[in-house]
C-alpha cells in the first residue's frame, strides 16, 4: 500500500493535439495537478522539509514560517502535517479563497499581507527575531533539487529521451532550474524556455521579479530563452486547454502552454514539454473560467 508521500511525482504527460499548430511537432503537458496536494509544489515542499529534517535543521515540533503565493503553501501545509510540524504561511491578500482555506484545512496558520514581497520580508523578519525556521523556497537548493531528482528524469523517461524543448513558468524558478540542470546533463542540446509576465500583467505562479527579490536559486545561464506572456493570452489559453483539450489547469499552465504553442509554430520539428503547474479548481472563485 502506498503512503501519501509515495504518490508525489510520476505525473502523466498528456499530448496536446487540437491546439498544436504544427503536425511535425509533439507538444505534451505534464499534469502536476495530479499530485496529492494539487500542484507541482508538492515535490519541492517534500524535499525541503524532508531534507531539513534529515540534516537536523528542524525536528518534530519545530515552528516553520514561509512566504508563498499559494501552491507552495498548500504543499508545505500538507507535508508539515505529515511530519508533525507547526507552520505559518504569509500569503498575499489577493490570493484566491480556495488557497487560504486549503492551507487552513491542513492546520496551517495563514497571515494575509499586501503582496508577495511584503510576505517575504515578514517571513524573514519572523525567522530572524522569533525563532521560527524559514524554508525560504527562493534561496533553498532543496527546492530545485527536487526537480533534478524527479521531474527532469520523469520527462526524459516518458518522452523516450526525445524531448527537444522544455517550457516552464518562472516563479521561485525551482522547477525550471532543477529540470534544466538534469535535462542539460543528459542532452545539452535541449532548449530550456522560461515564461514571465509582460509588464503590467498579473499571472498567478509566474513572476517578473524586482532585482532585489530575484530568487537566489535562479541561474540565468540555465535558461536558453525567456518568453514574455500577456495576461490575456494566459487566460485565453487556460480556457482553451479546458474546452478543447480537456485539461483543467490554472493560469500559469495556460501561460506555459501559449509559449509552447508559439514555439511549435517557429520550429520545423521537435518534442516540446510544458509544465501544467496546478489544477483549475484553485481558481473557481475568480473569473478565470467565466
- Tell me the overall shape: globular
Low-pLDDT residue spans: none
Strand content: 15-25%
Most strands sheet: 6 strands, mixed
Enumerate how many helices there are, as a single number.
8
Short description:
Helices cover 39% and strands 18% of the residues. It has helices spanning 41-55, 71-83, 97-105, 116-129, 141-158, 174-186, 231-245, 251-266; strands spanning 13-15, 25-31, 63-67, 86-92, 109-113, 133-134, 165-169, 191-197, 225-229, 270-276.
Task: Provide the descriptors you would attach to this structure in a database record.
six-stranded mixed sheet; alpha/beta; globular; single chain; four-stranded parallel sheet; 290 residues; EC 2.5.1.47
How are the secondary structure elements laid out?
Elements: E1 13-15, E2 25-31, H1 41-55, E3 63-67, H2 71-83, E4 86-92, H3 97-105, E5 109-113, H4 116-129, E6 133-134, H5 141-158, E7 165-169, H6 174-186, E8 191-197, E9 225-229, H7 231-245, H8 251-266, E10 270-276
Helix pairs in contact: 1-2, 1-5, 2-3, 5-6, 7-8
EC number: 2.5.1.47
Catalytic activity: O-acetyl-L-serine + hydrogen sulfide = L-cysteine + acetate
GO molecular function: cysteine synthase activity
Describe the structure.
The protein has 290 residues and is α/β, with parallel strands linked by helices. It has helices at 41-55, 71-83, 97-105, 116-129, 141-158, 174-186, 231-245, 251-266; strands at residues 13-15, 25-31, 63-67, 86-92, 109-113, 133-134, 165-169, 191-197, 225-229, 270-276. A six-stranded mixed β-sheet has the order 1-2-10-7-8-9. The model has no long low-confidence stretch (mean pLDDT 96). Its cofactor is pyridoxal 5'-phosphate. Residues 6-278 form the Tryptophan synthase beta chain-like PALP domain.
Amino acid at each position: 500500500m502506498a503512503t501519501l508521500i509515495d504518490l508525489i511525482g510520476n505525473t502523466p504527460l498528456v499530448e496536446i493535439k487540437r491546439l498544436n499548430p504544427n503536425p511535425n511537432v509533439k507538444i505534451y503537458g505534464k499534469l502536476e495537478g495530479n499530485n496529492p496536494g494539487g500542484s507541482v509544489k508538492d515535490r519541492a515542499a517534500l524535499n525541503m522539509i524532508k531534507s531539513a529534517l534529515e540534516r537536523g535543521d528542524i525536528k518534530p515540533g519545530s515552528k516553520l514560517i514561509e512566504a508563498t503565493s499559494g501552491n507552495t503553501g498548500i504543499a508545505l501545509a500538507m507535508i508539515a502535517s505529515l511530519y508533525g510540524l507547526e507552520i505559518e504561511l504569509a500569503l498575499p491578500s489577493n490570493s484566491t479563497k480556495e488557497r487560504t482555506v486549503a492551507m487552513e484545512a491542513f492546520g496551517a496558520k495563514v497571515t494575509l499581507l499586501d503582496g508577495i514581497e511584503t510576505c517575504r520580508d515578514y517571513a524573514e523578519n519572523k525567522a530572524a527575531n522569533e525563532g521560527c525556521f524559514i524554508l525560504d523556497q527562493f534561496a533553498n537548493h532543496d527546492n530545485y533539487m527536487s526537480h533534478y531528482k524527479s521531474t527532469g528524469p520523469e520527462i526524459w523517461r516518458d518522452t523516450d529521451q526525445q524531448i527537444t524543448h522544455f517550457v516552464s513558468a518562472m516563479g521561485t524558478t525551482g522547477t525550471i532550474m532543477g529540470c534544466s540542470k538534469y535535462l542539460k546533463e543528459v542532452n545539452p542540446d535541449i532548449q530550456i524556455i522560461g515564461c514571465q509576465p509582460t509588464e503590467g500583467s498579473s499571472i498567478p505562479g509566474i513572476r517578473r521579479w524586482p532585482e532585489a527579490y530575484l530568487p537566489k536559486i535562479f541561474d540565468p545561464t540555465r535558461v536558453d530563452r525567456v518568453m514574455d506572456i500577456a495576461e490575456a493570452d494566459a487566460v485565453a489559453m487556460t480556457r482553451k486547454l479546458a474546452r478543447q483539450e480537456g485539461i483543467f489547469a490554472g493560469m500559469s499552465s495556460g501561460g506555459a502552454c501559449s509559449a509552447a504553442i508559439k514555439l511549435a509554430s517557429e520550429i520545423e520539428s521537435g518534442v516540446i514539454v510544458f509544465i501544467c503547474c496546478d489544477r483549475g479548481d484553485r481558481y473557481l472563485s475568480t473569473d478565470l473560467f467565466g
